[in-house]
Amino acid sequence: MTFNPEFRRNLWIELRLHRLIAMPAIVALVAALLISLDSSLGILRSSALAAFYGVVFLWGGRCAASAIAGEVNGRTWELQRMTALGAWSMAWGKLFGCTAFIWYGGLMILALFGYASVARREMPLEGALYFAGMEIAAGILVQAVALSISLILLSKKPRSETLPVTFSQLIGLAAVLVMAWRPEFGLVLVPRWEAFGAASWYGFAIQLHHFAFASVAVFAAWAVFGVYRLMRAELQFEGAPWGWPLFTLFVIAYLFGFLKGGEMFGVKSGLVVGFFVALAAAYISVFADHNGPLRYRAIFAALEAGRPRLALRRLPRWLPSVLLLAIFAGGAMTAADFDLFALGPLQLRVLEPEIGRLSRLWVAAAVLFALRDIGFVLLLNAWGHRRPDLTAFVYLVVLYGPAVWLLQLVAPQFAGLLVALPVQISALSPVSAAVQAAILFFLLLQAWRRPQAPGLDRKA
Amino acid sequence: MNAEAVIQVAGVTYDYPGLRALSDVGFAVEAGSIVAMVGANGAGKSTLLRCMAALDRPLAGEIRIAGQDVFEDSRAAHRRLGYLPDFFGLYDELTVRQCLAFRAAALGVEGEAQAGAVETAARRLRIDDRMGARAGTLSRGLRQRLAIAQAIIHEPEVLLLDEPASGLDPEARIGLAAVLRALRDSGMTLVVSSHILAELEDYSSHLLILEAGRLVEYRALDGAAAPRASGRTTLRLVMAEPVEDLAGRLAAVAGLSRIEGEGRIAQAEVPADPAAQHGILKAILAAGLPLAEFAPLRGSLQDAYIARLQTERRAMQGDSS
C-alpha cells in the first residue's frame, strides 16, 4: 500500500528535525518551570489544559484553515487539483498532515495534563484517558470544520487568488462551543470526573462522560466526512448533493433523542424539531453554496442537452434542503397548536408564553418567507453583486431586526407581511410571502437566462 | 470526432459572469504535434487550456485526451496529461527531489518506478545537479525547468503549457525550445500557449488562433507560404550587391509580378510551377542582375497570425455593419 503522498508532503514540511527537537525541549522546559513554582502540580495542570486549547484549537484550527488557503495563496492548489489522488486521500492527507506538528506538541501537553490530573487525584486514569479521547475528538472537530469552511469559501470564489483564514478558524472554534450547548456538556471544555448522572437519550440513561465523548466523536466524524465531500466537489468529482441533507437528518435524529417520552407525543415533537432544524439548515446551505449564475445556467444547459444525471450532479445544496424543509413543515402542520414548551429539554427558552404555540399559518409563512430570503440571496448573486452573500446577510439581519422592530411600533399590522412573526401572523402572511418569493424567483430566472456577451476572458 | 487524434475538443463553450470566454471551440490534434496556441491577451487561451486539463468544466462541449473524456474521470485524465500553468506552483520549502517525488506519487507513479521517474525527469530537464536544493532558492529559469519536470514526471501523452517562456531570459528561452523539441521527439503531444510568437516559431508544427473566444484558424505550419488560389507564390530575391532601381529592373523580367523592394532585397510573385520559376531565374541572370538568393518567402508565424487576425476582424466588422 502506498503512503498517502499528500500526507507525506505535509510531514516533510511540518516535521523538520529542528522542530521535532524544539517542541519537546520547550514543553519540558516550561513544565519544569511550572513544577518548580507549584510542586502540587496545580499550575502545571491548568497551564497544560490552557496550552492544549491554545495549540490544538487555536493554532490547529488556523493551520487547518491555512491548508487550503496557503495553497491558493501560494498558487499550488491548481496543480494539486491536477493530481490523480482521490478525494479521501487528499482530505485526510491535508487535515492530519498540515496539523501533524500541532498534534505532536498537543499530545505531549495532553499527556502532561493527564499526568498532573491523576497525580493530584482529580481524576482516575480512566477519567484521564476518557478526557484525552474527548479532547482529541474536539480538536479534530475544530480543525475539520475550519478546513471545511475554507473549502466552502474556495468553492464560492473558484478562481480566487487569495483566501481568508481567520473566518474559517473562528467557525471551527464555534463548532466546539456549540458542542457544549448544554451545561452538563461543558465537560467537553472543562474536565471534571465527579458523578454527573446520566444523559437521557431515546429513553436510555447513558453515563454522561460516555455520552459527551461519543457525541463529540460522532460530530468530529461528520466534520471529517464534510471535508471529504467538499474535497470531492473541489476535485471535480461531481455527485448529487445528498451529504448536507443527510447531516440535517442526523442532527434531527440526535436532538429528537433528547425529547422526553418518545411515544406518539414524541413523534409530533420530532416533526416540530425537524422543522426548526431543516429551516436553519436551508438558510445555512444557501449561504454555503456557490450561487453564481453560471452554475444555474450549467444546470439548464445539461437539462436542455438531455443529460438529467449531469444536471442532478450540479444541483446546489439548498435545493434538497428546501425539499426537506417542505417535508418537515408538512409534518409540523399536522402538529398545529403544538405547545413549544412541550419540547422539554429543547424548549426555546426565548419564547414568551403567549407565542409559545405553533400554528399552521406560522409554519406555512415561515417556509415561504425562507423561500423569499433564499431567492433574495440568489438574486444578488445572479445580478453579479460584488459581495452578494454578505450584502444579503446584512439586509436580512436589518429586515429581521431593526426594520421589523420599527414596523411593530408604527404599523404592527404590516409586520406579519414581511417576516414570519408568531404574534402578528395572519392569513395574509403566507400569501404575502408567496407573492414576494414568486417575484424574486421570476427575476432570478430572467437573470439566469440573460445571454452572454462574447468577450475577453480573465487571466487564470 | 477524429478517432485518431490524441486531443479532441468539440463544441466547447465557456462562460464567465456576463461574458462568453469560449464559443463553440472545436479541433483535433494528432499525436506528436506541437500546437502553438496564439491569441491576444484575453482571447481565451488559458481558459481553453484549463478546460483541457479538466480544471474548469465548460458550459457545453466535450474534451477527450487519448480517448478519455476528461470530465467523466478527471483523475484518469490527469494520469495521461501534464499541465504547466502560467505560474510554477512549486512548494518552496521542499527540495527538488521532494517536489518531484511528491508529484510522481500524486500522479500514480509508485514503488520502485517512482525513484526512476524522479531521476529521469531531473536529467531530462538538466536539474539533476540540484536535487538537494530547496525550490525556493532556485533561479526563475531553474524553477521553470523544475515545474516542467513535475508536469512530465508521469510520462504523459499530452503536455499543456500556458505561457511557458514568460519571464525567462533569452538563454533560458532557447533552452526551453530545446526541451520542448526533445519532449516532442520522445512522443509527447504538446500544446503551447503564448502571445510571444517568435518563441513558438522554432518548434511548432501547428498554429491555433483564438480571437475573442472563437477558434479562427487551426492548420499545420510547413514553414513555406502556401501557393495561393491564383497558382502563384512569393519568392525572396537577394542580390550580391545593391542595385539601383531594383524593382524597376525586376519588372522588366517576364513572369514576375507584385514586385517590392530596393537595394539588395526584393520579393515578387512568380508562378508556383518549378519549370516556370527556372525560366524566370535564367531571365534575371540574363538581365545582368547579381542574383545571390532565389527562394520561397518563408512566412513567419507572426505574419500568418497577423494576416489571419486582420481577415477575421474585417469579417467581424462586416458582419456588425
List keywords for this structure.
heterodimer; A: 460 residues; two-stranded antiparallel ribbon; 3% strand; disordered C terminus; B: 321 residues; alpha/beta; 6-stranded mixed sheet; 10 helices; 13 strands; globular
Condensed summary:
The complex is a heterodimer of chains A (460) and B (321). Chain A is mainly alpha-helical.
Describe the overall structure.
The complex is a heterodimer of chains A (460) and B (321). Chain A is globular, with a radius of gyration of 25 Å. Chain A has 460 residues and is mostly helical. Chain A has helices spanning 5-14, 17-37, 42-73, 77-81, 87-97, 100-119, 125-156, 166-179, 208-234, 243-256, 264-288, 293-304, 308-313, 318-334, 360-382, 388-410, 412-415, 428-448; strands spanning 198-201, 204-207, 338-339, 357-358, 453-454. In chain A, α3 packs antiparallel against α6, α10 runs antiparallel to α11 and α14 (318-334) packs antiparallel against α15. Residues 456-460 of chain A have low confidence and may be disordered. With 321 residues, chain B is of the alpha/beta class. Chain B has helices spanning 45-52, 74-80, 96-106, 112-124, 140-152, 170-185, 197-201, 246-251, 274-286, 301-320; strands at residues 7-16, 19-29, 34-38, 60-65, 68-69, 81-84, 158-162, 189-193, 206-211, 214-220, 232-243, 257-271, 291-296. In chain B, the strands form 3 sheets. A 6-stranded mixed β-sheet of chain B has the order 6-7-8-3-9-10, sandwiched between helices. Chain B has a 4-stranded antiparallel β-sheet with strand order 2-1-4-5, with helices on one face. Chain B is globular. Residues 224-229 of chain B have low confidence and may be disordered. The chains are: A mainly alpha (460), B alpha/beta (321). At the A-B interface, α1, α4, α12 and β5 of A face β1, β2, α1, α2 and α3 of B. β5 of chain A pairs parallel with β2 of chain B, so a sheet runs across the interface.
